[in-house]
Amino acid sequence: MTDFARTRALFELPEGIVYLDGNSLGPLPRAARERVAREVSREWGEKLIRGWNEAGWMDLPETVGDKIARLIGAAKGTVVAGDSTSINLHKALTAAVSLAGPRKVVLSDSGNFPTDLYVAQMALRALGGGHELKVVAPEEVAGTIDDTVAVLMLTQVDYKTGRLHDMQALTAKARENGVVSIWDLAHSAGALPVDLAGADADFAVGCGYKYLNGGPGAPAFIYVRPGLGDRIDPVLAGWMGHEAPFAFDLDYRPAGGIQRMRVGTPPILSMASLDAALDAWDGVSMDDVRDRSIELSERFIAEIEARCPELTLASPRDPSARGSQVSVAFREGYAAMQAAIANGLIGDFRAPDIMRFGFTPLYIGMDDVVRAAETIERVMRDKLWDRADYRARAKVT
Ligand SMILES: Cc1ncc(COP(=O)(O)O)c(C=O)c1O
Ligand SMILES: Nc1c(O)cccc1C(=O)C[C@H](N)C(=O)O
């Protein structure tokens, strides 16, 4: 049984704040603070360039990738950390298209995060092969997968509503139809059990700064199915993905397997932060995380519905159809969220009217859920959302 009191103590959580935004930016793990400080003063400060060999810097993308692999049902040596999710998606999509043969359709859905669609729109145009991005409603994806589709490119958990795709079933249907699959796990990795190997997915990407708590702008990750890595000709090639980076050959020869998905020099300080943050998952069972996340989110929904009739649930009611977030719709959601934040509850807002709350059992407990509901009730009852200063606050996130 996972000891969530122990994991909570691993994080620095500011006094007086209930933090339900770890689905966007995880809080600071104490170990990350210490690790980055040590990496700066001891490894960088004293070892200087020797750090690349002596401090494990060169292998850190694979070391970190292996730690992430355990959380997403992937074998060791199939995940590498680095770059951003958008860039990793570009690598995965361009590779997937080249593996898919003459088919021209890349299938995605309108619940996808915009960056995924932007990457696809421009990468497909740049490839110049006449590929078409087909975007359907989330519930139409299964029925649209057929043998005309080249690539299925989906985000498993909808960033706005928390709606969860059935990865197992959709990947199986893709496989039956000869479709290459790519999953964006930005809102899945560390949020719920994922079984990439069991689903037989081809590619996956995801973020290091959300549920994995690596810090702002932490490196992302990319997964390639075992055996597939050696068949990829990376479009985004660089020396760190070369078979022998320090041979300084003038010709590109890809490294074996997942290593060829590396491009340039890894951001070691961010990577070290993510590496340390991932140790919080030692002794944590993803099944326990899922059970606890459902308990927390079910209680949150019950409290909100009992206290705030103005709010409409925008997430699936069935917890098995949701990720680890709950969204509610409210026409003045932006100002309401600003009022909640000013009163110690941090969630976020997604246009046009979604108030979004993430549940992260590693450091959020039932008391936090009740306090959050009390704060939202006060915002609604006292119409704090109608105050001019909350309405006027600058929209950044
Ligand atoms: C589903 C999804 N994919 C990708 C991203 C963007 O990733 P990045 O900014 O690291 O490229 C986000 C959030 O920003 C996201 O929610
Ligand atoms: N990556 C972010 C950023 O740099 C600033 C603010 C928010 C983000 C996010 O991650 C947004 C997030 N993907 C979302 O689900 O909306």
UniProtKB/TrEMBL annotation:
Keywords: Hydrolase, Pyridine nucleotide biosynthesis, Pyridoxal phosphate. The keyword Manganese does not apply. GO terms for molecular function: kynureninase activity; pyridoxal phosphate binding. This is Kynureninase. Belongs to the kynureninase family. It catalyses: L-kynurenine + H2O = anthranilate + L-alanine + H(+); 3-hydroxy-L-kynurenine + H2O = 3-hydroxyanthranilate + L-alanine + H(+). Catalyzes the cleavage of L-kynurenine (L-Kyn) and L-3-hydroxykynurenine (L-3OHKyn) into anthranilic acid (AA) and 3-hydroxyanthranilic acid (3-OHAA), respectively. Pyridoxal 5'-phosphate binds at T85, S86, F113, P114, T115, D116, T155, D184, H187, Y209, W239, T265. Pfam families: KYNU_C (PF22580). One of its GO terms (cellular component) is cytoplasm. Homodimer. SUPFAM superfamilies: PLP-dependent transferases. The gene is kynU. Pathway: Cofactor biosynthesis; NAD(+) biosynthesis; quinolinate from L-kynurenine: step 2/3; Amino-acid degradation; L-kynurenine degradation; L-alanine and anthranilate from L-kynurenine: step 1/1. The modification N6-(pyridoxal phosphate)lysine is found at K210. Its cofactor is pyridoxal 5'-phosphate. Its EC number is 3.7.1.3. GO terms for biological process: anthranilate metabolic process; L-kynurenine catabolic process; L-tryptophan catabolic process to kynurenine; NAD+ biosynthetic process; quinolinate biosynthetic process.
